[in-house]
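Figure 3 (text version): C-alpha cells given as input.
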C-alpha cells in the first residue's frame, strides 16, 4: 500500500516523459526527474517519500525529509499566513501547513520565517499537514541525550503554558523554563540556549536569562567594532534583510535586531533610512 506521509520502497515500472512511474504491483505513483537522486531503470527498487502535489495527486521524492507520519523532526518555517497558520518546508516542492489550531492564540508568539518547529505529519481531509509534538510526546521519545546541571543546551521554544515555556533540545529532550527564568518575549520555533538548572522525575528545568544577555552583549560589541572600523557608518538598519545582515556581520537577523535595539536604547547609535551611525564618532 502506498501511504501518504511515509517512506515506501517501490519498483520502477517504466520511464515517462516526466519521470519514473513507480508501483507496488497495485498502484502507481510518479517520481519526477527533479525528485530523483539518480537515474533508474525498469525493475529497480527505489525508497521514496510519498506526498501530495498541488493537485492532490500522489507523488514521490527521493529527498530526505525531516519528519513523517510516524517519525518526528525539525521542519523549517518558510511562510506565515495570519489567521491560518504557518507553512513549513520538509524538502518537498509543496510546503505543509501547520494550522493555527496548534499555535498560540497570540500571533506574536507564532514562529517566524526560518524558525524550526518540532513536528510529525498528519493527513486531514486528504491534505498532508504538520502537527507539533506536545511535551508528553517529546518525553516519550527514545533519546540518549543526558544533560548535567549548569550545562548550556541548544534548543527551540515549543510550548507556552500558564507558568512557563517548553524547550525541545536538539538532543530531543524537553526542558521547562519558568517565566521567572526568562526575560523579554519569546515565540514558538525560536532558537535558544538554555542552561539546565535541575532534573526532577525525568524532566529537565532550565533558565534562559544569562545566555540571552551574554549573547546580546557579544553581538552589540560586534556591531560597535564594525562601526568604529568603518568611520562610524554601517549600511544596515533594523529593516535590513537576513541576507544583508549575514553578509556584513555574520550573525542572524534576529540576533542583530536584538543587539541593535539594545544599542539604540543605550543611545550609542542613530540611524536614517539607509544606514546606522555611531554617536559621537571622531
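Below: residues designed for each position.
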Amino acid at each position: 500500500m502506498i501511504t501518504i506521509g511515509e517512506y515506501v520502497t517501490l519498483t520502477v515500472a517504466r520511464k515517462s516523459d516526466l519521470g519514473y512511474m513507480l508501483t507496488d504491483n497495485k498502484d502507481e505513483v510518479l517520481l519526477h526527474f527533479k525528485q530523483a537522486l539518480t537515474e533508474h531503470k525498469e525493475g529497480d527498487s527505489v525508497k521514496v517519500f510519498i506526498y501530495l502535489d498541488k493537485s492532490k495527486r500522489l507523488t514521490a521524492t527521493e529527498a530526505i525529509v525531516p519528519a513523517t507520519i510516524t517519525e518526528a523532526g525539525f521542519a523549517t518555517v518558510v511562510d506565515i499566513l495570519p489567521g491560518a497558520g504557518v507553512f513549513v518546508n520538509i524538502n518537498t516542492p509543496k510546503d505543509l501547513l501547520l494550522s493555527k489550531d496548534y499555535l498560540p492564540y497570540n500571533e506574536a508568539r507564532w514562529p517566524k520565517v526560518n524558525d524550526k518547529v518540532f513536528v510529525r505529519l498528519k493527513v486531514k481531509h486528504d491534505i498532508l499537514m504538520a502537527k507539533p509534538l506536545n511535551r508528553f510526546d517529546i518525553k516519550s521519545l527514545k533519546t540518549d541525550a543526558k544533560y548535567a546541571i549548569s550545562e548550556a543546551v541548544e534548543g527551540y521554544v515549543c510550548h507556552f503554558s500558564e507558568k512557563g515555556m517548553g524547550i525541545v533540545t536538539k538532543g530531543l529532550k524537553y526542558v521547562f523554563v519558568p517565566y521567572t527564568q526568562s526575560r523579554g518575549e519569546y515565540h514558538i520555533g525560536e532558537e535558544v540556549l538554555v542552561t539546565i538548572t535541575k532534573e526532577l522525575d525525568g524532566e529537565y528545568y532550565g533558565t534562559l536569562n544569562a545566555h540571552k544577555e551574554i549573547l546580546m552583549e557579544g553581538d552589540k560589541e560586534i556591531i560597535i567594532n564594525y562601526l568604529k572600523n568603518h568611520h562610524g557608518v554601517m549600511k544596515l538598519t533594523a529593516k535590513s534583510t537576513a541576507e544583508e545582515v549575514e553578509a556584513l556581520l555574520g550573525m542572524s537577523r534576529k540576533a542583530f535586531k536584538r543587539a541593535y535595539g539594545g544599542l539604540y536604547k543605550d543611545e550609542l547609535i542613530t540611524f536614517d533610512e539607509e544606514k546606522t551611525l555611531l554617536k559621537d564618532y571622531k
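The CA atoms of residues 80 and 86 lie 4 Å apart.
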